[in-house]
Sequence to fold (621 residues):
Amino acid sequence: MNLLIALMVIVPILCALFLNLLHKRDRTIKVVTVLLALALPALPLLANYGLHYFGGYAPLVENPTLSANLPSMITGTALNTFHPAITYSFQSAQQLFVFILGLVALLAIFVSLFETRRPSGVYAYMMFMGVAAVTAVILTDDIFNLYVFFEIAALATVGIVLVSNIKGNYETALKYMIMGSIAAPLLLLGIALLLGVTGNVNITDIIYSLKNGLVDPQNPVLLMACGLIIFGWLYGSGLPPFHTIKSAIYSKALPSGAALIQTFSVFIFVALGIIILRIFSYLPFSQWVILGVSLLAMILGITMAILQTDLKRMIGFLAVGELGYIGIGLGLSTAYGITAGLFQAVNEAMITALLFLGFGVVLYQTGVSDTRKLGGMMVKNPLVALMVLLAGFAMAGVPPLNAFQSKLMLIQGSIKAGLPELGVIMILLSIVTFMTFMKAFHAVYLRPQPVDLEIKNEKIPKATLIAMLVLLGVCLIFGLFPQIATSYLQPLATSLAGGML
Amino acid sequence: MIIDVQLASLFTAVALIVIGIFAAVFLDNLIKKVIGLAFIGDGVNLFLISMGYKAGGIVYIYLPGMAADWFAQNAAYPLPFALVLTSIVIGASTMAVMLGIIIVLYKKRGSISASKILGE
Fold:
């Protein structure tokens, strides 16, 4: 049993609870928060691969002492292999996901402490709590445990928006919660139906029951469960029809908060997508549903981004469009396609966070996020402008940056899977992404500064520059040496494509 | 018994979910919307509890003197009950946050009409 696997969730929760007590103590909050946040990317690097059984309750087959005293109606059946406790699974793919989540969280927390005049323990609490919840969503092999943390992540997201103090944040948060209060119970209903049919909430055990004829895989109740879980997946990750509220949520959070929230969306999207693939891949339509929804997200997200005049809203819609690329990779259901999709997820989390932080500097200096009122920012901060430009290039898939590698893999994967049309659509949408980004970049940085634009803060916090440089550095490394990331993702992708999980 | 208890519970759960969705979508008063959302959660919880029902079964507490085989065959399935407890806690916290936001919005805007507050 590897205790560090559980600590990846427990440590951020404890940090969150501790920081919540520190409000109104500015200096202490800054030091303690940064020190605690360092644990977020460090823990996944220190932990060994394996399973963690909460309470120490391993399956009976691994515990001969206990099973010796039990009747044969338990030990002689599939119950012998079932997981009695909540199980967390930590393999190479999860290591990379939790590391990237921890890295973005560390940088977002670091930036938030130096961009706000009075650092708030409550804000740090929400960020740590969200990280704990999404880490659990990534690690858990228990679908009900996933639901619990899915809800906690949604509450933390709302908390990050409420703390931001941006006009209209309460209204947007309430809308998001109302939609969530319909979607999340429906996700739970899907889980209840799975439980009703299979008698289990452990995903590995559910798959065992389906594959070994313990339950009829063609049971119509399973189709309904699949539909409801997909509905929850759409809400959690902000796919259509929830894309407008999700981008509104990004626009009502502080840039550091938005950077973190979009990372939550990416990893919830990946975690639930993997679960849908694992449980329902035997249903022929599941692949087409994933592909269809992803295609819709790409088209709607990117085309709606063109129309936006608010910087954060524009990046929000672009982020939804990029989620579509990840979904295409998962939907291809080949080892190469899934690796490409998962690689795209890792890249998108970092690139979008970088864009939020970069355009956040403009917001910090001017207090304006409307592109029609901005201009001339290149003169004020050329280094930030260069980093934002590179981030935009990365998002559009310009070589040698990371998303170029993942998008190239996705296009190759779609051709190999016999769906070259998807490759054509992805190329066209990448061009539209590039145009959208360049339009915003021109408006903010290249055109002359409007006369009425007032610069409130000349000096940019060093923390923001450091955070952006780190993210850009990782983007460049993954772009030049993609095998660093793909080698972590391939084992999971191969198992998913081969139906071995 | 005229109607099976489990079946009646399932029908009630579906009715609660449908009424809840109707209230959440069509009612304008934010408090009524939240009550509708609570109905959806309650319906799903009732659905989960119904999963664990066993006609003629016993409470899943293993007492001294009970034969393990007999207990395993007759005890109700405990997992759904444990899940529902957690689900109730999540539902309560979500509702508390929503009501808190509505209080703030009422103080700011003087209304709890969804079309006035959220419609803009």
